[in-house]
Amino acid sequence: MIHTLRLALVPAFLLLCLILGGASAAGYWANMGLQLIAVAIILWATLAHRNTPMAPAGRRLIGLLLLMVSLIVAQLVPLPPSVWTPLPGREAVVEGFALLGQPLPWMPISLAPGRTVASALWLLPAIAVLLGILRLGGYKAGWLAWTLAGATIVAVIIGALQRAGGDQSPLYFYQITNFGSATGFFSNANHMATLLVVAVPFLAALYLNAQGKGRSVQRSSGLFFILAGAMAVVCVGLAVNGSLAGVGLAVPVLAASAMMILSKARRVPLWAIGLIALLTAGSVAAVFSTPFGNNLTNDTAKISQESRYVSFSRSMDAAGDFMPAGSGIGTFKEIYQSREDPAAVTKTYMNHVHSDLIELALETGAAGLLLILLFLFWWGGRVIAIWRAGEADHYARAATIASAAILAHSLVDYPLRTAAIGALLAMCCALMADPRPRARRGKAASPEKQARHLSAD
User: Fold this and answer.
1) How far apart are CA 125 and CA 17, in angstroms?
2) Residue extents of the structural domains in the chain
3) Residues 43-75 pLDDT 10s
4) Per-residue pLDDT tens digits for 369-422
5) For a pLDDT cut of 90, what percent of the chain falls above it?
6) 77, 156, 277, 433: which could join 237 in a potential S-S bond, CB 3.0 to 4.6 Å?
């Protein structure tokens, strides 16, 4: 019983994240609850003793996590005036103290330390999921996939009812949301689209895993129709949702999921992986071409203060001005507002760049960009290793597809600012770090593999 509860820990927490963590600028009480639960999981995972050594990929991933935490801490350490005043972007701060006639105090790199701490707290659910899998082993991959599938289907149903009820539907969970769109558990329709796209490869993994268990023909057929129905619901959800990025990402995700089903446990050639990568780039580029009416490349993008074109351009200029130290995590809103045209300011404001990469470049500077490159190097190596492995872990392969979709969407939006999508990316990375291929029938597993598969870790 205790072992079962332990295995249900991360799936249960993931479900809470998907239901309660769908907003980046609202839902503070719900997110606070997720953060408190996350603290307990993180403490448990930190103090727990693994019965088996962690895989090298897992150790490297936790090393990257420690570097991220170190970067946040470094932005909060007070520095003497002789150190922080020469940093780019601090001229206005120095002038402010001069106007007040006050001596320059010790200050950290972050221009808003309180916001940096608050932003760091939003990372706790993702960290809890990552450590819960890698350190505690509190999961079963199949349970994670079923949790994701079930939450997605319910979200699609809620989204359809939201559309049917119009702007006045009582099923919208946030005051700041895309009224009239299918947002499900989220406040942003684009983030709901991310959830839908991520669910696709895990539905394929559930089918492959069930097929490999040697079930009876009747049970296999029944499960196939259930999963096929779930896939149909997800596709309908994408159509109802209407997110351009969701539609663009759905094409390569469906292609990669189909390749996963067709290849089954076989090793996938490198050219096939490259083809999917090209398809991803082409699909995203096509969606953001002029005919689709997006706000990055269309005719009005350059003059609309709320367009991605303007926010990207203005934020990249700011990022250059604050290099190499950055302005501090969580400071985007104030930095952006200081660069807006006062005559064009309205009641609507930019709370994020709509690009996690650009926002991190502004807030974390060169150190943050280097950390992103190190993560992408780790992630790319794991993708190749997982798809080229002789014995496939279907859930690890699904995780590579899902994480690629999240990272691609993060280039033109900010899904990772929500606890829900952050937890999903953490889940995917953890599954990639510790793949567990099924031992083939009729072959005895080596003692090392037997010990690993029998372990609760």
Assistant:
1) 7
2) 2-49+57-75+110-437+448-454
3) 999 998 877 888 899 999 999 999 999 999 999
4) 999 999 999 999 999 999 888 778 899 999 999 999 999 889 888 899 899 999
5) 51
6) 156
Report which of 6, 14, 7 is spatially closest to residue 151, judged by C-alpha positions: 14
Helix (H, G, I), strand (E, B) or coil at 309: helix
CB 69, CB 438: distance < 8 Å: no
Q: Any idea what the Cα angle at residue 231 is, between residues 228 and 232, rounded to 5°?
A: 90
* Token pair of 283 as six digits: 């699909």
Return the exposure string of 364-380: e unless at least 16 CB atoms fall within 10 Å of the residue's CB, then b: bbebbbebbeebeebbe
Question: In the chain, count of helices (H) and strands (E)?
Answer: 19, 0
Assign 324 to helix, strand or coil: coil
What contacts 401, CB < 8 A, 6 or more positions away? 200, 201, 253, 256, 257, 260
Give the side-chain half-sphere CA count within 13 A for 372. Answer: 15
3-state secondary structure of 245: helix
Q: What are phi and psi of 79, to 5 degrees?
A: -120, 150
Please say whether the beta carbons of 52 and 448 come within 8 A: no
Averaged pLDDT for residues 5-23: 92
Q: Which amino acid is at 141?
A: A
Cα separation, 411 vs 369, whole angstroms: 14
Please report, for residues 327, 362, 451, the alpha-carbon distance to residue 368 in angstroms, rounded to integers and kept in the order given.
11, 9, 39
Chain centroid offset of residue 83 CA: 35
pLDDT single digits (tens) 434-448: 776 544 443 444 433
Place of tokens 């003059």: 303
Cβ contacts of residue 228 below 8 Å, gap of 6+?
none
What is the DSSP secondary-structure string of 393-443? -HHHHHHHHHHHHHHHHHTSS-GGGSHHHHHHHHHHHHHHHS--PPPPTTS
> What is the secondary structure of 350-364 as a DSSP string?
-SS-S-HHHHHHHHH
90-95-100-105 Cα dihedral, nearest 10 degrees:
30
Structure tokens at 75: 């932005």
Q: Using N-to-C axis directions, what is the helix angle for 394-410 and 356-388, rounded to 10°?
A: 160
Closest CA to 212 of 11, 439, 386, 417: 439
Q: Please check whether residue 88 is in contact with residue 322, taking contact to mean a CB–CB distance below 8 angstroms.
A: yes
| CB-based burial label for 226 (10 Å; 0-12, 13-18, 19+) | middle
Residues in the chain: 457
Instruction: Count Cα neighbours of 20 within 13 Å in the Cβ-side half-sphere.
Output: 17
**Cis omega (within 30 of 0) on the bond before 201?**
no
Q: What is the pLDDT of residue 394?
A: 92
